[in-house]
Automatic annotation (TrEMBL):
InterPro entries: Sec-1-like_dom1 (IPR043154), Sec-1-like_dom3a (IPR043127), Sec1-like (IPR001619), Sec1-like_dom2 (IPR027482), Sec1-like_sf (IPR036045). PANTHER family: VESICLE PROTEIN SORTING-ASSOCIATED. SUPFAM superfamilies: Sec1/munc18-like (SM) proteins. This is Vacuolar protein sorting-associated protein. Gene3D superfamilies: 3.40.50.1910, 3.40.50.2060, Syntaxin Binding Protein 1, Chain A, domain 2. It comes from Phytophthora palmivora.
Length: 383
């Protein structure tokens, strides 16, 4: 099982954001007025929710959920006689996919059975575009719709993501700038939890639009992202703000960096192995530098749970071998030092050292793994 980082140690205690999101979803499920819920999520949202519910979505069984499914699963997997609650991003293509899934699901109903109840809650702002998508389907009248109070998903102690992957394309090519409203709503939600930004600076047209939307939400007294039909909890904002300055930058003011070559360890890993929400997938053959090992890719966490990675992630790729060597020597010296004084060590000192052994072994394994990853990166770039 992959490890997710604890989020209460960073400059901003992001664990509180996790708690608010968990509270919002469980509150919604508890107040639907039904005892049996089939929760159906888009693949992207399901992936990001694993960063909220670190012990798995199984905890939702305590909140009337009998099964969690992905939208891509076959409709035959949906249990009969349940209320189907769809969770999706506030994107037209996601809502369209939900409508198609629901239409297929309702074809299984017979005239004598009780009509299945459907609900759709989106992460983001419900827009007229989403209403039009629902109007084009045949199941609009069957849906209860609303918004779910989630914004930026915490991936690590210093990393948040909105989860959108095509924002620039949608804004510049499709002319759809609804994601900018979602971004403003996410920033507003962040302020609800941690207090208002002391100052906001922006550069670029789209950054200005995000700021304008954010100011409109403040002027209109908009707190949570809540729709008329949504029922959800209220974040417990702090009295003293933990947020200093917000800087909004457009991609349009910095096209050059898109064409630059990334040379930090983290950037090269992302360039060649594609970091997704704090994880890469790599085969044990690469991780162990063993051709006889399995070639089936496994997830590898790249976050602050790995202390070695935390120390080398932003270093130049050419300095990584020396940095890892320093770490390896330090671990070896700790073992050697204890062996030297072990004959005269007290029981308390021995006990204290034994407590550090698992951490040192984990560090040693992490060093070896990063050395093997580095070798793979060097081999790949030399081809």
């Amino acid at each position: 099982m992959v490890k997710l980082p604890p989020l209460d140690k960073g400059i901003l205690p992001l664990q509180k954001l996790r708690d608010e999101y968990e509270r919002a979803l469980t509150h919604l499920l508890d107040h639907l007025g039904t005892d049996r819920v089939s929760l159906v999520l888009t693949k992207r949202l399901a992936s990001l929710l694993t960063h909220v519910f670190v012990d798995g979505l199984g905890i939702l069984k305590n909140h009337h959920v009998v099964e969690c499914l992905e939208l891509s699963d076959d409709i035959s997997n949906v249990t009969a006689d349940t209320t189907v609650v769809y969770l999706a991003f506030a994107r037209a293509r996601d809502v369209r996919a939900v409508a198609v899934h629901a239409e297929k699901l309702l074809t299984q109903e017979d005239g004598e059975s009780r009509k299945r109840r459907l609900a759709l809650y989106v992460v983001g702002k419900w827009t007229t575009m989403l209403s039009q998508v629902m109007d084009n389907g045949r199941v609009k009248s069957r849906f209860q719709t609303g918004e779910l109070a989630m914004g930026f998903f915490p991936l690590d102690t210093d990393l948040l993501t909105l989860g959108y992957q095509r924002t620039l394309y949608e804004c510049e090519v499709e002319g759809n700038r609804s994601s900018l409203v979602d971004m403003a709503a996410a920033l507003n939600l962040l302020q609800q939890v941690y207090g208002k930004f002391g100052s906001i600076k922006y550069k670029g047209e789209m950054s200005m639009l995000v700021l304008n939307h954010l100011m409109e939400m403040h002027a209109g007294g908009s707190g949570m992202m809540s729709g008329a039909s949504a029922t959800q909890g209220t974040p417990t904002g702090t009295q003293r703000s933990r947020l200093d300055t917000l800087i909004l930058l457009d991609r349009g003011v910095d096209f050059a960096s898109v064409f630059s070559t990334p040379l930090t360890y983290e950037a090269v890993l992302d360039e060649l192995m594609h970091i997704q929400d704090g994880f890469i997938t790599a085969s044990p053959q690469i991780l162990r530098a063993d051709d006889s090992a399995s070639d089936v890719p496994v997830p590898v966490a790249l976050n602050s749970t790995d202390d070695i990675y935390r120390q080398i992630r932003d270093k130049h790729i050419h300095t990584i071998p020396a940095a890892l060597n320093v770490q390896a020597v330090a671990v070896k010296q700790r073992f050697s030092e204890f062996q030297r004084v072990s004959d005269t060590a007290t029981a308390a000192e021995v006990n204290e050292f034994v407590k550090t052994v698992p951490q040192m072994k984990a560090s040693q394994q992490a060093i070896e793994q990063h050395m093997n990853l580095l070798e793979y990166l060097e081999t790949t770039t030399e081809k």
